[in-house]
Amino acid sequence: MWEAIESNRRRSRWIVAGMGALLVALGGLIGNAIAPRTGILIGLGGALFVWILLWTVAVFQGDSIMLSIAGAQKIEKADAPQLFNVVEEMVIASSLGKMPDIYVIPDDRPNAFAAGRKPETRVVCVTSGLLRLMSRDELQGVIAHEIGHHKNGDPALMILMGVMLGAIVLLADVFLRSNILFGGRRRSRDDKDDSGGLQILLVVLAFALAILAPILAQVMYFACSRRREYLADASAARFTRYPEGLASALEKIAVEAQGNRQANRVLAPMYIVNPMEALAAVGLFSTHPPTENRVHILRSMGGGVGYVDYDAAFRKITGKAGCIGARTLNEDTPATRREGGPEGPVAAGPETREEKVTRSREVGNLLGRMGGLTMMQCPCGVGIKIPPGAPWATIPCPRCGRENRVPGK
Amino acid sequence: MGPALLVVIALVVGLIFLGILVVVGMYNGLVRARNETKNSWAQIDVQLKRRHDLIPNLVETVKGYAAHESKTLESVIAARSQAVSAPTTDARIAAEGQLSQALSRLMVVTEQYPDLKANQNFLSLQEELTSTENKISFARQAYNDAATSYNTRIETFPSNLIAGNFGFKPEPLFQVTDEKERQAPQVKF
């Protein structure tokens, strides 16, 4: 719709091309350092081989590996109706098409991520802590951000970049290690068929690149990742017509997300807020922009909700050139915020204590079901939890004393 | 025939080929945009039907706890049957607006019945209804976004040349004319 995919892919294409060039240069130089001239082709072949290998693993196994590392479980509508509904709402608002699978990670710290390279394998994953802490508007903001990632094609791009980064790090590492181990022998042989100053220069270059390339590639990877976060925020504002929802969610997450031990470094770029360094300063090696900035931008959109408004706020807050492609900005149409706007639902507003209690009970039930508990309800309205493998065929209700049949017995 | 002539012919053929590619690309882009508009429109319909399906269940549940609110309940039922049987699109839009208002009145009334608000079945119906109202709004929003983007393409150079020749017509935007309807989803359940 907004061609956000196209114009941003064009911007990211330069970074991808840069990383590709780095990989090729590294492969060629390493090959040349091992065996002058003839080795260049071997080196290039090696680089290609490593890249294809990692790519294959990422494509066939990536998402399932990631979800199993994070301990996520797929849920259905009956498990968490509100979460399911909010995802459906955002799929409609974004015209994403196919509904992604929804996973929940039993973790008390609030966070969320989007994964899946193709429309059929799209996943939106949230932690139980997110469900417990967020109001409906905030949850909607977070989900809109994740759906924004999908709409902008980010998971596929980040897999591509991640694989390139991995290949560069691997090649450089193997080269440097093997030279530390077998360095002495190689050097003595090189002395015999020394083909002049150029070869020495190239070998030195190979070493320099082997040290520098992984660092450079990481900087590129992280820069791309940060840009994508801003873009997904802009999409979320556009889809929900309510930037405040995401802004207040981000604040809550930043406070609570510190020390999310279940997430590891590899998965960090996928999350809505970087779990490793939620409040730490942001440098070249951060996957996420500072949350403070993101919140500030979302709140400075001056009543607008379009990509144009986000871009203007971005320039004002960060002092940098815009973060959104020119084509997307050109195609942006004016849209009004939800309050008083002619379209889009009105924000539900701050929630009551009652609603908070209901929600935390729902999350408790969801976690119970995920942990294998059987949930049943007595006709008098009391919920009963039955542990897996319990021997009883019926169970008395603690309130009204009625004997209830245990399902599946 | 000199080599210069060959180069000129190759250039001309290449340019024609390129031109055809550009036209095909634009045409496909327009078709895609039009399909997206149609899909978004269909989505509004899906959600309105979903709301119709929820209402009988909702009315039954509320009846059990708030039987003497029969007037409000009847107005919901009447609005629903009118919306279901509306003969024209305009009549349908008007009837759906009435239904939105009737539903929000019902939801205000239910606030006075704590037992009803504790009923699990009612709570889940309430979430479904809230979400369906949201989905209707978001579907309208998505339709307007898609239609605006499609209309802009039809009107702007150079895709307007192709749109004119292949009969791409602009799609109307969804505008809420009734001030009351605009306010309707504001009711907080």
What's the helix and strand layout?
The complex is a heterodimer of chains A (409) and B (189).
Chain A lengths: L3 H31 L3 H32 L3 E2 L6 H14 L6 E5 L6 E4 L7 E5 H6 L2 H16 L2 H39 L4 H44 L2 H14 L34 H9 L7 H12 L7 H6 L21 H18 L3 E4 L5 E4 L7 E3 L6 E3 L4
Parallel strand pairs in A: 2-4
Antiparallel strand pairs in A: 1-2, 3-4, 5-6, 7-8
Chain B lengths: L2 H63 L4 H15 L4 H22 L3 H5 L1 H36 L3 H7 L13 H5 L6
Describe this structure as you would to a colleague.
The complex is a heterodimer of chains A (409) and B (189). By secondary structure, chain A is α+β, with helices and mostly antiparallel strands. Chain A is built from twelve helices and eight strands. In chain A, the strands form three sheets. Chain A has a four-stranded mixed sheet with strand order 1-2-4-3, sandwiched between helices. A two-stranded antiparallel sheet of chain A has the order 5-6. In chain A, helix 1 (4-34) packs parallel to helix 6, helix 6 (154-192) packs antiparallel against helix 7 and helix 8 runs antiparallel to helix 9 (291-299). The radius of gyration of chain A is 26 Å and the shape is globular. Chain B is rod-shaped and about 95 Å long. In chain B, helix 1 (3-65) runs antiparallel to helix 2, helix 1 runs antiparallel to helix 5 (120-155) and helix 2 runs antiparallel to helix 3. By secondary structure, chain B is mostly helical. Mean pLDDT of chain B is 83; it is low at 178-189. The chains are: A alpha+beta (409), B mainly alpha (189). The A-B interface holds A 1-2, 81-82, 85-86, 88-90, 92-95, 239, 241, 331, 333, 335, 342-346, 348-349, 358, 377, 381 and B 36, 39-40, 43, 47, 118-120, 123-124, 127-128, 130-131, 133-135, 137-142, 144-146, 148-149, 152, 174-176, 182, 185-186, 188.
